[in-house]
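User: Can you recover a sequence for this backbone? Please restate the input before giving your answer.

Assistant: Of course. Working from this structure:
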């Protein structure tokens, strides 16, 4: 089972697209709203060295942005 965390904000169009993509492929994920959670924001910055969202943590592998190809590869989505 893959462990997927998404650091996002509700007003980020790439975050919405990413979450819809994962839902279409029945991938479970934890959605963390960094606009409301300061400690989660700090955790995201520590992991990614970035302030931009979305940041995706797939089994410890960090991806900044909606990199569909890389995400699909890590999650074995065809």
């Amino acid at each position: 089972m893959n462990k997927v965390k998404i650091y996002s904000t509700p007003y980020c169009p790439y975050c919405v697209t990413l979450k819809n993509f994962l839902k279409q492929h029945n991938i479970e994920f934890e959605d963390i709203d960094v606009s409301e959670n300061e400690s989660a924001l700090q955790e995201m910055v520590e992991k990614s060295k970035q302030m931009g969202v979305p940041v995706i943590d797939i089994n410890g592998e960090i991806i900044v942005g909606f990199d569909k190809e890389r995400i699909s590869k890590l999650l074995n989505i065809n």
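That completes the design. Residues 4-74 form a domain with the Glutaredoxin fold (CATH 3.40.30.10).
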